[in-house]
Amino acid sequence: MSEFSPADYWKALILYGLNTATYKIALGKTLLNLAGRGKTHISWEELSNEFFGQYLQRLSIEDPMPQLESPGRLTVMERIVQKYKAGRIDRGAAVEEVGKEAFGDVIRRFHNLGRFKISGLSKMFYEFDFGKELILTDPLFLIGESNISELHEELETRWGLLEGAFVISNSDYRLGNELREIYIANGYDRRSLAELVPFLKGYQGNVCFFCGESILPDDVHVDHLLPRQVLEHDEIWNLVLAHSYCNQLKSDRIVGEHYVQKLVARNENIMGSNHPWKHKISQTLGKTPLKRAQATKVHYENVCVILGRDYWNGDSGFSPESDPFYRKLITVLNNKGLS
What we know:
By secondary structure, the protein is mainly α. 54% of the residues lie in helices and 7% in strands. It has two domains: 6-185, no CATH class; 194-338, no CATH class. It has a three-stranded antiparallel β-sheet with strand order 1-3-2. The chain is elongated, with a radius of gyration of 24 Å.
């Protein structure tokens, strides 16, 4: 390793490392700032606070750009910053979330140079006790003494280049950002949904929403039909029961429109009952079948804009007409109400 200086290895990591998100760049800026304070041992809270500050500054401009290669997805940091900006969490809570959720890959992989395996590089600029502290090493202080402006400029340039590349993959990111902000501002943290299983079973005929086959007691999953990562809530109108297999296949992708039609019909079945949940659905989606169907379709179209139209259509042989759910549960009256 003697033929290359620490600065050479730093530039190689920043300029040539593999990046599907901007985390490595943000961590690079964080490391330089922390080294500039002259401290060797950095607590996890101080690390998290500085890392959060990097993203807060980056994402507080009028038109923030995507930080992830995957179309329509958000990084953990984007989610935390958006919740903070929406007033759902204060800075202390935001920093705590960063420490718990944001460093899983980037701390361990910062020194990764793709397919190139270089002995001694894995601990060149820091060592760590994950979740507790970061220990900055001499090479980091060394490069910061003479090249700090140049290093910061390279990081800024690389960050901008990545964002530009991600924009190409996220053609509707501006509208998607605006829609996400609305959902985040009105959302809340995930909660346990186990208590809703008996209720959903009753109105779903104890069959999987996606394949129509019976659900066994030990294989019940509550799924957000429209992905929770977008809607940011656990409202009953968007929850369905599924097999673990179907739920895993779907993941957080957008379902085909036939499943949205099925969701609308399922919700109208609830509206035809005396269960208190009907009032919540009415309050959220509208007082008439037509308004509820239209509101559900609006949410669906918003999700399509945000995530891109990467559909999961389920079983290719699925047909609403042959679905046991429709045959068993959707009443003639409710079907007429939807027309």
